[in-house]
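About this split. The held-out portion is used to measure sequence recovery: a designer receives only the structure tokens and must propose an amino acid at every position. Recovery is the fraction of positions where the proposal matches the reference. Here is one held-out target exactly as it appears in the evaluation file.
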């Protein structure tokens, strides 16, 4: 702003000099006047651009300085832990050794990568010295080129390692799909989404276990809840929560018109030992016959359980077990997970700055994706990503969409690289 302000002040001064009288202004050569004015204003604009460029370079340098300050602190902490783990007093305390070893293990990859980066930087400086020797110049230039690439790669790896990790990434998930706007077609689409996630889970070696399902009258599901078990399930499926929109000619449509319908998806990490106090007096428990496909009863005993948590209005149902007791146990576990997820969601929604560093708004009614059948197109609106392979996506080839979301999420996280580390050290 300093350059721009200076330009404006110069122009104002110029006008004050030429405006004492109309006669003097008329006596000035117009071309000369315009040339002088443009010169004055051009200088101000150049100064303004220079200020902006300087600010951008300064910000980048500050971010880099903060990053390396954090890396130095992490390396120092790692060395302290190494020293502590050789202390005889600590070695006699099994729990302390376990705690410190875990902490050191969490830091190890970052520290080793940082040490490789520093070594590569030192080697680059030595290669630059060799460049001055005519006999070694060709070898030195090749080495400089190789080391520059290595340094760039290691720098990016360090950025990624400093991004706070989601503690839930390695957990199983509980998913809920509901038919929303669109009546029978919404329920049919909910069934299509369940099929898509089932194929995707199979491709990743995950297991799916249906907890509760209400089938739609024309097919699909008005509601289905299921657990996905496997390695790092939440890290990939956590982006799926929200409203999924489908545009196609429904099987129930007789005029051949394209309809728009929606189904909602909710993804919750499975949480062990949820510390939530639920009073028995706050629960409404119903038991009924469990049912299978088409609504027929598959168990003549009242084994299915529905639990309503009155204060929050959260309702869970379980009918997968033959025993009412087992269904109740699983329903209570699911109830705690749902209540915990609601509480966590409210806390995250209250932290505006954090929400901005994540994909989407986090609103569960947010329209996140459109499946356009006539164009064979899938569009994720959060990142403006489209692929003309809807047929393959619906057959479980969801990886390109998931990878695009992960990449964009990482970019947003890197913008906040100067925030405190996931280790809570600085």
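Reference sequence for scoring:
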């Amino acid at each position: 702003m300093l350059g721009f302000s200076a330009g404006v002040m110069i122009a104002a001064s110029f006008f004050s000099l030429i405006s004492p009288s109309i006669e003097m202004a008329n006596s000035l050569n117009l071309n000369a006047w315009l040339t002088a004015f443009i010169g004055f204003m051009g200088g101000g604009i150049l100064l303004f651009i220079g200020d902006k460029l300087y600010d951008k370079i300064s910000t980048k340098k500050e971010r880099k300085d903060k990053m390396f300050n954090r890396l130095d602190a992490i390396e120092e902490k790692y060395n302290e832990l190494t020293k502590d783990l050789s202390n005889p007093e600590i070695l006699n305390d099994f729990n302390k050794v376990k705690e410190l070893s875990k902490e050191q293990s969490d830091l190890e990859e970052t520290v080793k990568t940082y040490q490789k980066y520093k070594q590569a930087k030192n080697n680059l400086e030595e290669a630059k010295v060799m460049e001055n020797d005519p006999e070694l110049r060709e070898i030195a230039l090749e080495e400089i080129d190789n080391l520059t690439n290595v340094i760039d790669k290691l720098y990016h790896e360090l950025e990624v390692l400093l991004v706070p990790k989601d503690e839930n990434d390695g957990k199983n998930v509980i998913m809920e799909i509901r038919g929303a706007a669109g009546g029978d077609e919404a329920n049919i689409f909910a069934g299509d989404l369940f099929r898509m996630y089932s194929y995707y889970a199979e491709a990743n070696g995950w297991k799916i276990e249906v907890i509760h399902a209400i089938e739609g009258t024309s097919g699909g599901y008005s509601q289905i809840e299921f657990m996905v078990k496997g390695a790092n399930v939440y890290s990939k499926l956590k982006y799926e929560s929200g409203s999924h929109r489908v545009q196609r000619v429904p099987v129930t449509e007789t005029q051949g018109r394209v309809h728009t319908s929606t189904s909602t998806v909710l993804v919750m990490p499975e949480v062990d030992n949820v510390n939530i106090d639920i009073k028995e007096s706050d629960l409404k428990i119903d038991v009924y016959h469990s049912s299978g496909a088409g609504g027929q009863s598959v168990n003549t005993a009242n084994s299915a359980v529905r639990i309503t948590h009155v204060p929050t209005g959260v309702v869970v149902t379980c009918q997968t077990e033959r025993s009412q007791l087992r269904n109740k146990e699983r329903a209570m576990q699911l109830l705690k997970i749902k209540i915990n997820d609601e509480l966590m969601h409210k806390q995250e929604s209250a932290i505006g700055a954090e929400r901005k560093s994540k994909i989407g708004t986090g609103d569960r009614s947010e329209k996140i994706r459109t499946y356009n059948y006539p164009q064979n197109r899938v569009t994720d609106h959060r990142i403006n990503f489209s692929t003309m392979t809807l047929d393959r996506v619906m057959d479980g080839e969801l990886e390109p969409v998931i990878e695009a979301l992960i990449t964009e999420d990482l970019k947003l996280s890197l913008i906040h690289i100067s925030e405190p580390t996931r280790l809570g050290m600085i």
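Annotator remark: The two ends are 34 Å apart (CA to CA).
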